[in-house]
From TrEMBL:
<feature type="transmembrane region" description="Helical">
    <location>
        <begin position="1014"/>
        <end position="1039"/>
    </location>
</feature>
<feature type="domain" description="P-type ATPase N-terminal">
    <location>
        <begin position="20"/>
        <end position="86"/>
    </location>
</feature>
<dbReference type="GO" id="GO:0005802">
    <property type="term" value="C:trans-Golgi network"/>
</dbReference>
<feature type="binding site">
    <location>
        <position position="443"/>
    </location>
    <ligand>
        <name>ATP</name>
    </ligand>
</feature>
<dbReference type="Pfam" id="PF16212">
    <property type="entry name" value="PhoLip_ATPase_C"/>
</dbReference>
<feature type="transmembrane region" description="Helical">
    <location>
        <begin position="964"/>
        <end position="985"/>
    </location>
</feature>
<feature type="compositionally biased region" description="Basic and acidic residues">
    <location>
        <begin position="1262"/>
        <end position="1272"/>
    </location>
</feature>
<feature type="binding site">
    <location>
        <position position="879"/>
    </location>
    <ligand>
        <name>Mg(2+)</name>
    </ligand>
</feature>
<feature type="transmembrane region" description="Helical">
    <location>
        <begin position="105"/>
        <end position="131"/>
    </location>
</feature>
<keyword id="KW-0547">Nucleotide-binding</keyword>
<dbReference type="InterPro" id="IPR036412">
    <property type="entry name" value="HAD-like_sf"/>
</dbReference>
<keyword id="KW-0067">ATP-binding</keyword>
<feature type="transmembrane region" description="Helical">
    <location>
        <begin position="1121"/>
        <end position="1142"/>
    </location>
</feature>
<dbReference type="InterPro" id="IPR032630">
    <property type="entry name" value="P_typ_ATPase_c"/>
</dbReference>
<feature type="binding site">
    <location>
        <position position="724"/>
    </location>
    <ligand>
        <name>ATP</name>
    </ligand>
</feature>
<dbReference type="InterPro" id="IPR023299">
    <property type="entry name" value="ATPase_P-typ_cyto_dom_N"/>
</dbReference>
<keyword id="KW-0479">Metal-binding</keyword>
């Protein structure tokens, strides 16, 4: 495996160009090109141990423990056995190492404790972490193995045989068959299709499911399927070096003395799927990690959470605090030795190596001897007090993260049963980071949308169609029972087609001339290719889903596009087959935003044109003014519903006019200079004085729940940026559809200039406008003020409030849209901060026409300059770079491929599950981890500082207060399980209320629950607790004797008393921190206390002959001990209970109030959930939401059609009917009159809701009804 993995090979010098000779293995081998083996895991068998240890030692705590272990191995300074350190340390290192592997594939001189006390915990911690990392990496290895062992047919010599992908090399010729994945980046040589065309699906690369066309060189296509010809093929390829530019390829091929140009149209990229092509042959150009797919994946980044980074800082602070305590003890020890202990050397002589010892082995003064002893004591106290940084903390953290990841995997509400896809936590180290996400960067196609277009409405000759209407023409609700239009008169109609306006069907059947021309245009003006399937069904292969939806709509209404040749288009109109002569196709491009066809039938020449309303209106005849106004009104209605609109127009052309224009067109088409500009000028000449036919409206179907998810995440305070390769108008339209952009926005800024100076000017203008409007906006606005009493506050409202009604004043909201060439300038150092400032002032940001690299750069810009946690979500290979760059990467595992999933930290099948991942699992994980850390530091400072107070009573001799075994077991057996259960199962409110009140997510955004201040308060509580734990028993037991006359104030008795009270106190404190009690909680909290007492009685029994023999029985049989235990715990717990009571009942946070509501709800029947939405009080944005024509369409397909290269015999056949599908849609009820009159209003379900809109707890729901918000 190591030999195959290119990452393990010696680095080669960078390539300037790539040279390949076909069928010359020896020549190609000299360049040492990468093989086709891929490796996405972090570790191999040999690198796992050193690499994993290096990563674990990036945690300052682990490095600290190893240093501590070394100190404990020095006999002269150790007062603790080595196992108190080594056991937890090894455990931590081992666990972390195993975890990384699965995902990817100890001298006592200055210590009073044995090194075992450190060694055992350390080994345990490292082991647990290693196991977890190993498990994660093993999953990556399995995914890699699955891909590497796919089979391909490889031509070696004149024989073709099956070979696994990992053994494919540059220069091989591969045969692929229909529906197979492309194994490497290939130069297409020949195919089974006419003119050597093949069709590929690039969903794995860009998330788009529409097919792309590739064509081989005619010279290589002649080889066909002849293996002997391929054996003699000896061409030499010179091309660009490996790179990540997916849409571009440059190279040349020399063969038989001729040189041929190679471009992207002749390349099949790894990850594509061959469709509708029986077979094809290709030459391997780039393989393995040098393929464009893998080059876009980037390197695996070692990710740590924000809490991990904070912990490293806190560990440094704790170590400084530890050094301070040790320094105090050192100074005090030096004074004590020189003033007091020196006089008792006859009983307790100094060590033989200490100057001035009474043993006479070392000469020196008392001051010198005291200094040496004090220095040794300094290191001794470092060892004794090391538990302020508990080794077991990290093993517990790893376990909590692992189990929380399993809970995500087991969540049935994130399971997508359509394709049997559960949610998957692919990384087990980032869970709590999900509760702190502030910026989400999302792809559009395949992530927010399904990439499926549906024809919904039309405006024809000034009349709107598409709504379900009654006999009087009034729009009605569409429900499950609403009947679809009967299209049975058309044998080509798709039974799945949903249309409810019977008026349009009546007009079609009645032979309405304008309706007929409308659908005739849709059936003629396109670049769609018809396809007849094996079962005889007629299907369309469209360059874009927009075109497919429009041509399919025409077919459903009886205007069936059946076939085409380079010179004709055949359609069947209401059963009559008509053949049109195709005279010219005026192709679409980004500037024209339209396409036209010129056809002739029965001697009449006509131009049919469709495009964006803005460009069509400019070219209309003056006679269309009235219909233009009606159509514009309809377009605004369609756009308001988030539909993508398109205008249609027609023109009659005289023979003389066409003859003159045709000559100019031919001249421009063969020009060798500025051909595109000349063609555009010729197109402009003929596309004038058009007659408007109407407009279409199609729906770019969003994934289920996308608008609701985005709205809820926005309320939670999360900002969403969409980074898409689609064109600007398409992205804007989807932005409105999914509620990313809204009419409430004051302005949507567009940055679309190509010149850097003009881009900067646009940025400055937008920033100035925002700042100017912010200054002019009054501080109070009665019209816009909205008050909430149920906690569903918009972003920016206070999370913790003492008032019932938390009022907020609406803020001005802005959107930002920026295209790719402008973004390229904005990402330069001189402009990137302006872009960031503007983006952060906007509620939503949409970046269009961006490359995969630009996606990563935008994410990195925010990540570097904002103290915020970022999340990137996508579904294709073009999203991999941003997924790896963000703090959290999420892959959508749907029909679009698995490349993004393989590079992600979390994956699921639908975008809507992101809401639950963040607002439920993320928030719970963050809450649990914060509670866990606060409690852990509290209990360990309370435990460790008891040693510090005891130092003042033992002459600073580094004598420990507790039994060494108690020190080892305190964090492993006595107090570990209750806090583990807290970190695994605790929740403040359940998932229902977590989603209902998204503002509960707010504490994670501002890092409220665990930060330096919270840590300091936990340390302070532990400090005070240690004082109580030490001095209350000290005062109670000083001079105490048992009823039998034995002394009860010796070290062992006192140590066991303090230890017992400590165990009870910290477990009771854990019980107070628990918000969600389970059977595990009761078992481990109360069980830990009981276990401690039982274990101490057994361990200190005479049978073990231990030095503490009989102490436990003596302590537990003393009434004074039990009274002291009760008194100390009351002193410790009562203030905490009082504080909690005050915070919960007097200064309750939103979480406290929702939790109280949840408790009350459980005692009652759950009432109907009423959702509160803000009413729109802002003016409608001046920017039109309408988008133009087919913005997923690509230029250049028209030339391919007219050349005839992509033609084949096509036979139309009738389609079989399937079961009908109905669309459910809730009726919208106008609430204007109700708002004005303060009268009762009946909702659609028949229930009456009494509302006074002026009431502070009332709000108008702009879509359904006026309701009263709930009060917590």
């Amino acid at each position: 495996m190591l030999e195959r993995c290119t990452c393990c090979k010696k680095a080669r010098p960078p390539e300037l160009e790539r040279r390949i000779r076909v069928n010359d293995e020896q020549y190609n081998a000299q360049f040492e090109y990468a093989n086709n083996y891929i490796c996405t895991s972090k570790y191999s068998i040999l690198t796992f141990l050193p690499k994993n240890l290096f990563e674990q030692l990036q945690r300052i705590a682990n490095a600290y423990f190893i240093g501590l272990l070394i100190l404990q191995l020095i006999p002269q300074i150790t007062s603790l056995p080595f196992y108190t350190t080594i056991v937890p340390l090894v455990f931590v290192l081992a666990v972390t190492a195993i975890k990384d592997a699965v995902d990817d594939f100890l001298i006592p001189a200055i210590s009073s404790l044995s090194p075992v006390t450190t060694f055992i915990p350390l080994i345990a911690v490292l082991t647990v972490s290693a196991v977890k990392d190993a498990l994660d990496d093993i999953r990556r290895h399995r995914s890699d193995d699955q891909v590497n062992n796919r089979k391909s047919m490889v031509l070696r010599g004149d024989k073709i045989g099956e070979e696994v992908w990992q053994k494919v090399v540059v220069g091989d010729i591969i045969k692929m068959e229909n529906n197979q994945f492309v194994a490497a980046d290939l130069l297409l040589l020949s195919t089974s299709e006419p003119n050597s065309l093949c069709y590929i699906e690039t969903a794995e690369l860009d998330g788009e499911t529409n097919l792309k066309v590739r064509q081989a060189l005619p010279e290589t296509a002649e080889m066909g399927d002849d293996h002997n010809l391929f054996k003699q093929f000896n061409a030499e390829i010179v091309c660009e070096p490996p790179n990540n530019r997916l849409p571009k390829f440059e190279g040349k091929m020399t063969w038989k003395g001729e040189t041929y140009s190679l471009d992207n149209d002749k390349i099949l990229l790894r990850g594509c799927v061959l469709r509708n092509t029986q077979w094809c042959y290709g030459l391997v150009i780039f393989s393995g990690h040098e393929s464009k797919l893998m080059m876009n994946c980037g390197k695996s980044i070692f990710k740590r959470t924000n809490i991990d980074r904070l912990m490293n800082t806190l560990i440094i602070g704790i170590f400084i605090f530890l050094l301070s305590m040790c320094l105090i003890c050192t100074i005090a020890c030096g004074i004590h030795e020189s003033v007091i202990n020196n006089n008792f050397q006859i009983y307790l002589p100094w060590e033989s190596f200490v100057p001035g010892t009474s043993q006479g082995t070392k000469e020196g003064s008392i001051a010198e001897g005291s200094t040496v002893i004090a220095l040794l004591i300094f290191f001794s106290y470092i060892i004794i007090l090391n538990t302020v940084v508990p080794i077991s903390l990290y093993v517990s953290v790893e376990i909590i993260r692992m189990i929380n990841s399993i809970l995500i995997n087991w969540d049935k509400k994130m399971y997508y049963d359509v394709n049997d896809t559960p949610a998957k936590a692919r990384s087990t180290a980032l869970n709590e980071e999900l509760g702190q996400i502030e910026y989400i960067f999302s792809d559009k196609t395949g992530t927010l949308t399904q990439n499926i277009m549906e024809f919904k409405k039309a405006s024809i000759h000034g009349k709107s169609y598409g709504d379900y209407v009654d006999t009087e023409g009034n729009p009605m609700d569409i429900t499950d029972a609403t009947p679809k239009c009967n299209l049975s008169f058309n044998k080509y109609a798709d039974p799945k087609f949903e249309f409810y306006d019977k008026r349009l069907v009546t007009e079609v059947q009645g032979g309405n001339r304008e309706v007929g021309r409308f659908f005739t245009l849709l059936s003629l003006c396109h670049t769609v290719m018809p396809e007849v399937t094996e079962d005889g069904n007629l299907e369309y292969q469209a360059q874009s889903p927009d075109e497919g939806a429009l041509v399919s709509a025409a077919r459903n209404f009886g205007y069936v596009f059946k076939s085409r040749t380079p010179n004709t288009v055949t359609v069947e109109i209401q059963g009559e087959e008509q053949v049109y002569d195709l005279l010219a196709i005026l192709d679409f491009n980004n500037v024209r935003k339209r396409m036209s066809v010129i056809v002739r039938r029965n001697g009449k020449v006509m131009l049919w044109c469709k495009g964006a309303d803005s460009v069509i209106y400019e070219r209309l005849d003056r006679s269309c003014h009235d219909m233009q106004e009606l159509t514009t009104h309809h377009l605004n209605e369609f756009a308001g519903e988030g539909l993508r609109t398109l205008c249609l127009a027609v023109k009659d052309i005289s023979d003389s006019e066409f003859a003159s224009w045709s000559a100019k067109f031919k001249e421009a088409s063969i020009s060798m200079e500025n051909r595109d500009d000349k063609l555009d000028a010729v197109y402009e000449e003929i596309e004038t004085n058009l007659i408007l036919l109407g407009a279409t409206a199609i729906e770019d179907k969003l994934q289920d729940g996308v608008p609701e998810t985005i709205a809820n995440l926005a309320v939670a305070g999360i900002k969403i940026w969409v980074l898409t390769g689609d064109k600007q108008e398409t992205a804007i339209n989807i932005g409105y559809s999914c509620r990313l952009l809204t009419d409430e926005m004051e302005e949507v800024f567009c940055i679309d200039e190509e010149d850097m100076a003009k881009v900067e000017e646009q940025l400055d203008k937008a920033l100035k406008e925002i700042h100017d409007k912010a200054k002019k906006k009054p501080h109070s606005d009665d019209v816009d003020q909205v008050r909430f009493s149920n906690g569903t506050t918009p972003s920016g409202a206070a999370y913790n409030t003492q008032e019932d009604n938390a009022g907020i004043v609406g803020e001005l909201e802005y959107g930002l849209v920026i295209n790719g060439h402008s973004l390229a300038h904005c990402l330069k150092p001189s402009l990137e901060m302006k872009l960031l400032d503007l983006g952060c002032l906007c509620k939503a940001v949409i970046c269009c026409r961006v490359t995969p690299l630009q996606k990563a750069l935008v994410v990195d810009l925010v990540k570097r300059n904002k103290q915020s946690i970022t999340l990137a979500i996508g579904d294709g290979a073009n999203d991999v770079s941003m997924i790896k760059t963000a703090h959290i990467g999420v892959g959508i595992s749907g029909q679009e491929g698995m490349q993004a999933v393989l590079s992600s930290d979390f994956s699921f099948a639908q975008f809507r599950y992101l809401e639950r991942l963040l607002l439920v699992h993320g928030r719970w994980s963050y809450l649990r981890m914060c509670k866990f850390l606060k409690y852990f530091f509290y209990k360990n400072f309370a435990f460790t500082l008891c040693h510090f107070w005891y130092a003042f009573f033992c002459g600073f001799s580094a004598q420990t207060l507790f039994d060494p075994y108690f020190i080892s077991f305190y964090n492993v057996m006595y107090t570990s399980f209750p806090v583990l259960i807290l970190g695994i199962f605790d929740q403040d409110v359940d998932d229902y209320y977590s989603l209902k009140y998204p503002k509960l997510y707010y504490p994670g955004l501002v890092n409220m629950l665990f930060n330096k201040k919270v840590f300091a308060l936990s340390v302070l509580e532990g400090f005070i607790s240690s004082l109580v734990l030490f001095f209350v028993p000290y005062g109670a037991l000083i001079g105490a004797v048992s009823p039998s006359g034995y002394d009860n104030s010796d070290l062992q008795f006192f140590g066991v008393v303090v230890a017992s009270i400590l165990v009870v106190a910290v477990n009771l404190r854990c019980a107070l921190d628990t918000s969600y009690w389970t059977g595990f909680s009761h078992f481990f909290i109360w069980g830990s206390i009981i276990y401690y007492f039982c274990f101490m009685l057994a361990f200190y029994a005479p049978v073990f002959n231990y030095s503490y023999q009989g102490v436990a029985y003596s302590v537990f049989s003393s009434a004074k001990f039990w009274l002291t235990l009760i008194l100390t715990n009351v002193i410790l717990i009562l203030p905490v209970v009082a504080y909690r009571f005050y915070m919960t009942n007097i200064a309750a946070s939103l979480s406290d109030r929702v939790r109280m509501k949840q408790r009350l709800t459980k005692t009652k029947a759950r009432t109907k959930d009423l959702h509160v939405r803000r009413t729109s009080t802002f003016r409608r944005s001046a920017r039109s939401m309408r988008s133009g024509y087919a913005f997923a369409h690509q230029q250049g397909f028209a030339a391919l059609i007219t050349s005839g290269l992509n033609m084949r015999d096509r036979v139309a056949s009738s389609l079989k009917l399937n079961s009908p599908v109905t669309l459910t849609k809730m009726r919208k009820v106008d609430d204007t009159s109700t708002s004005a009159s303060n009268l009762e209003k009946k909702a659609t379900n028949g229930n009456t809701v009494n509302v006074k809109p002026s009431h502070p707890n009332s709000v108008v729901d702009g879509e359904e009804r006026v309701i009263r918000s709930e009060r917590l």
